[in-house]
C-alpha cells in the first residue's frame, strides 16, 4: 500500500503536502488536471493552502469516504449549510435507504414505464433541437414554480413522487405538505404523500420526508438528465453501436412492444451500452465533496479537520471494491480510462464489457454512482431509469446527425460542460420513429 503514497514524501504523522501554497485550481475540466497531478504526485494529492485532498484511486476513496460524511445529505433549503452528523442526519439517511433500496424501487416501475418515452423525445422528433428543448424545459420549470405544478412529472420518470415537497422547500412557495397533497391532481399514491399520511402530526418525521424529497430532486435531476443526454449524443456519434443495440432489441423483444425490466438480462449489448455511457460520462465527475469532521490519520498521514475530500470519479483508478474495506482484498485492478484495461479508453466501445470478467449485472462496479458506504443512495432507481430509457429509445427511435440541404451529415458539437455536473453541450440531432409501432406510440403520447 505504501506505493500509493510514496510520492508524497511524507511519513507517518506528516501532513500530506504534495502541492504547496499558491496552487491555482483548474477552472475547466478539473478532473483531467487532477489526474495529471495524480500521475505526478501520487494517488492522494493534497492541496495544502486550500485544505483539499484529491483521490485518484478507488480503494483509497472507499477507505476514506467510508468514514466521512457528505455535504449533500442533510443540506437544507438548497443552501450549503452543514448539518452535524447527528441523530437527525441518521434518521434522514435511514428514511432514504428504506425507500430507495434495491427491493423498494420496484414501486417506481409504473412511472418509469409511463415516462420511458418521455415527451422531450417526442418534441425532438417534431424537430425541436436539444437546445430549444432545454429552453423549453427551463421555461416549464419556471412556470411550474409559479403555478405549483410539476416540472419533473412532465419531463422525467418517477420524480413526480417528490415534486410537491421539492417545491415547498426549494422555491419561495410556502405550501404545506398536506395542502399540496389535497391540491394534487388526482395522484394520491406518491411516495411522499404515502409517507406523509402515515405520520400525521409528527413534525420531525414530516421534516425528514421533506428533506428526502428535496435531496432526491437535487441529486436525481441533473445526474439522470446528464446520463440520458450522454447516451443520446453517443448514439448520434456511433450509429453502428446504435444499430447493434436496436438489432438485439428487435431480436429479443420484437417490434410491437417496448422493452421491460424482465427483458434486461436477455439484452447484454444494451446493458453494455448503458455501462459504457456511465464509464465515459459520469454525470458528477468529482462525486460529492466530503469533509473530514476531525483531524484524522490515514496510512500514517495526517488529514486535517475540515479537509475537503474529492474523489476523481472521471479518472479514478478502479480497484476491486466492496462495502467493506478493501485494503487487503485487491484482486482486480482497472482504471476507468486506463488503456491497459480499456483499450482506446476515450472511444465508445460497449463490446469491452461483453468480454470482461466479473459481475456484469451488478451496479456496484459502476463508479459513476460513487463509493463504499457513501455510494449514491438513489442508484437503484437511477439505474432502472437510465437503463429503461436507453432500451426504449433504442427500440423506438433513430438518432442521427442532422443533414444539410444537400443531404450531407452536419457535424455536431461533442463538447461537455465542465461544472459540478457534466452535461453534453446543446447539440442538434434528427430523431425519427423506426417502426410503425413507435410512430403510433409517439402520436399517442403527443396528443
Ligand atoms: C445517473 C444518475 C445518478 C448518478 C450518476 C448519481 C451519482 C451520485 C454520486 C457520485 C454521489 C456521491 C457518492 C459519494 O459521495 O461517493 C451520489 C450521492 C447521492 N445520490 Fe445519486 N446519482 C444519480 C441519481 C440519483 C437519484 C435518482 C437519487 C434519488 C432519487 C440520488 C440520490 C443521491 C443521494 C441522496 C446521495 C447522497 C448519499 C450520501 O451522501 O450518503 N441519486 N449520487
Automatic annotation (TrEMBL):
InterPro entries: Cyt_P450, Cyt_P450_E_grp-I, Cyt_P450_sf, Cytochrome_P450_fung. Keywords: Heme, Iron, Metal-binding, Monooxygenase, Oxidoreductase. GO terms for cellular component: membrane. It holds the Pfam family p450. The lineage of its organism: Eukaryota, Fungi, Dikarya, Basidiomycota, Agaricomycotina. This is Cytochrome P450. Residues 1-24 are annotated as: Disordered. Heme binds at residue 376. Pathway: Secondary metabolite biosynthesis.
Amino acid at each position: 500500500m505504501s506505493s500509493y503514497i510514496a510520492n508524497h514524501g511524507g511519513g507517518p504523522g506528516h501532513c500530506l503536502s504534495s502541492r504547496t501554497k499558491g496552487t491555482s485550481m483548474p477552472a475547466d475540466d478539473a478532473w483531467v488536471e487532477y489526474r495529471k497531478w495524480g500521475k505526478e504526485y501520487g494517488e492522494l494529492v493534497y492541496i495544502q493552502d486550500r485544505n483539499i485532498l484529491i483521490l485518484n484511486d478507488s480503494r483509497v476513496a472507499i477507505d476514506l469516504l467510508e468514514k466521512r460524511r457528505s455535504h449533500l445529505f442533510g443540506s437544507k433549503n438548497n443552501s450549503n449549510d452543514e448539518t452535524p452528523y447527528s441523530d437527525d442526519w441518521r434518521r434522514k439517511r435511514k428514511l432514504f435507504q428504506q425507500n430507495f433500496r434495491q427491493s423498494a424501487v420496484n414501486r417506481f416501475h409504473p412511472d418509469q414505464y409511463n415516462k420511458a418515452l418521455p415527451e422531450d423525445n417526442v418534441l425532438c422528433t417534431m424537430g425541436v433541437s436539444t437546445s430549444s428543448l432545454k429552453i423549453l424545459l427551463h421555461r416549464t420549470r419556471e412556470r411550474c414554480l409559479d403555478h405549483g405544478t410539476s416540472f419533473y412529472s412532465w419531463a422525467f420518470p418517477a420524480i413526480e413522487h417528490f415534486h410537491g415537497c421539492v417545491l415547498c422547500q426549494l422555491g419561495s412557495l410556502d405550501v404545506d405538505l398536506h395542502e399540496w397533497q389535497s391540491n394534487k391532481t388526482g395522484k394520491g399514491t406518491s411516495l411522499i404523500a404515502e409517507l406523509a399520511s402515515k405520520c400525521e402530526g409528527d413534525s420531525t418525521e414530516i421534516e425528514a420526508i421533506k428533506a428526502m424529497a428535496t435531496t432526491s430532486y437535487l441529486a436525481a435531476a441533473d445526474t439522470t438528465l446528464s446520463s440520458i443526454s450522454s447516451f443520446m449524443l453517443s448514439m448520434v456519434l456511433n450509429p453502428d453501436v446504435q444499430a447493434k443495440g436496436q438489432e438485439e432489441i428487435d431480436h429479443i423483444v420484437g417490434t410491437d412492444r417496448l422493452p421491460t425490466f424482465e427483458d434486461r438480462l436477455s439484452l447484454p449489448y444494451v446493458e453494455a451500452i448503458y455501462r459504457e455511457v456511465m464509464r465515459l460520462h459520469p454525470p458528477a465527475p468529482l462525486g460529492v465533496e466530503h469533509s473530514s469532521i476531525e483531524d484524522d490519520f490515514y496510512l500514517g498521514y495526517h488529514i486535517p479537520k475540515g479537509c475537503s475530500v474529492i474523489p476523481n470519479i472521471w479518472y479514478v483508478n478502479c480497484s476491486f471494491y466492496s462495502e467493506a474495506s478493501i485494503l487487503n482484498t485487491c484482486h482486480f485492478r482497472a482504471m476507468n480510462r486506463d488503456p491497459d484495461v480499456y483499450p482506446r479508453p476515450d472511444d465508445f466501445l460497449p463490446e469491452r464489457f461483453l468480454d470482461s470478467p466479473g459481475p456484469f449485472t451488478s451496479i456496484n462496479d459502476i463508479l459513476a454512482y460513487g463509493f463504499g458506504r457513501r455510494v449514491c443512495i438513489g442508484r437503484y432507481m437511477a439505474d432502472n431509469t437510465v437503463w429503461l430509457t436507453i432500451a426504449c429509445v433504442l427500440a423506438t427511435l433513430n438518432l442521427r446527425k442532422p443533414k444539410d440541404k444537400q443531404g450531407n451529415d452536419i457535424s455536431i458539437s461533442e463538447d461537455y460542460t465542465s461544472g459540478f455536473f457534466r452535461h453534453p453541450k446543446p447539440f442538434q440531432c434528427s430523431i425519427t420513429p423506426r417502426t410503425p409501432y413507435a410512430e403510433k406510440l409517439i402520436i399517442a403520447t403527443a396528443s
